[in-house]
Amino acid sequence: MTPQSTAIPQFVMDAIVGGRPFKNKLSMVVLSGDYDKVMGAYIIATGAAAAGMDVVMFFTFWGIKAIQKDGILTGKSLFGRMLGLMNRGGLKAIGPSRLNMGGLGRWMFKFMMKKKQVSSLEDLYDMAVELGIVMMPCEMSMSVMEYDPKTDFKPNVTEPVGVATFLEHASESRVTLFI
Amino acid sequence: MFDTPIKSIDLKGMRCPLPVIKISRAVKEVNIGQTVEAFVTDPAISADVPAWCRTSGNELVKLEKVNDLYHIIVRRSR
Fold first, then answer.
1. What is the signed CA dihedral for B27, B32, B37, B42, rounded to 10 degrees?
2. CATH number, position A61
3. Is residue A9 situated within a structural domain?
4. What is the 3-state secondary structure (H, E, C) of chain B?
5. Which domain holds residue A173?
6. Looking at the complex, does the CB of residue A50 fall below 8 Å from at least one CB of chain B?
7. Who among A18, A139, A168 is closest to B44 (CB)?
8. In chain A, how many domains are there?
9. Smallest CA–CA separation between A168 and chain B, in Å?
10. pLDDT by residue for chain A (179 residues), tens digit each?
11. Whole-prediction pTM
């Protein structure tokens, strides 16, 4: 009878990254800027944080709309300012990914959700801040779309970071999501 | 101990993710124990290069910002 191997299985070795095992942590990329997807992101993030997990959210491309300060216009060049005009309004102005119908769909969804007492996006953001969720903007998207990190983001957003920083968080997280 | 970097790469003007990708490629091309030097203008590198070093298991020897230019030295540890 052949002796059992005592070697550590590969999947266990893979789970130990740089000598550190997985933490009770959730990392999330928020690339979408649509109302439905950003809501999903904040609901999952606040749910995880409420369950005691560390939560890290990395906002890139359209996701930057969700962490933009209200009432400002971004951009410096012609294209930047055109984009800033279309991206304006912060969390109130974000519409659903389908059936926005010029804002009518957005209003209808908000109306229906309020009737069923679902938290609004603004309330979810405040809960996320209260729960200590780390919100990081993507430096590359931010500068392509000409956002100024000193003035254009909400107060609880961290300084801009790049992909390697997000990947470090993701590689020690039990759960990693892409929204 | 400070030794002269074996390899020096100019990453000025490059934006995430190129800087870390180029640094990781340069680090693979030197021997264990040798260093790679990089000049980077991407502001995200100040968070990214320490994170990359921790995740890849290499040593960050130097990360210094002079005006808008980051001078980085990384040692290959594995």
1. 40
2. 3.40.1260.10
3. no
4. CCCCCCEEEEECCCCCCHHHHHHHHHHHCCCCCCEEEEEECCCCHHHHHHHHHHHHCCEEEEEEEECCEEEEEEECCC
5. 23-178
6. no
7. A139
8. 1
9. 6
10. 555 556 666 666 555 555 567 889 999 999 999 999 999 999 999 999 998 899 999 999 999 999 999 888 888 999 999 999 988 888 888 999 999 998 899 999 999 999 988 889 999 999 999 999 999 999 999 999 999 999 999 999 999 999 999 999 999 999 999 99
11. 0.83
For residue A165, tell me if it sits in a domain. yes
**ipTM, 2 dp:** 0.76
Catalytic residue set of B: 16
A167 touches chain B (CB under 8 A): yes
What's the gap in Å between the CA of B47 and the closest CA on chain A?
6
Architecture of the domain defined by B7-75: 2-Layer Sandwich (3.30)
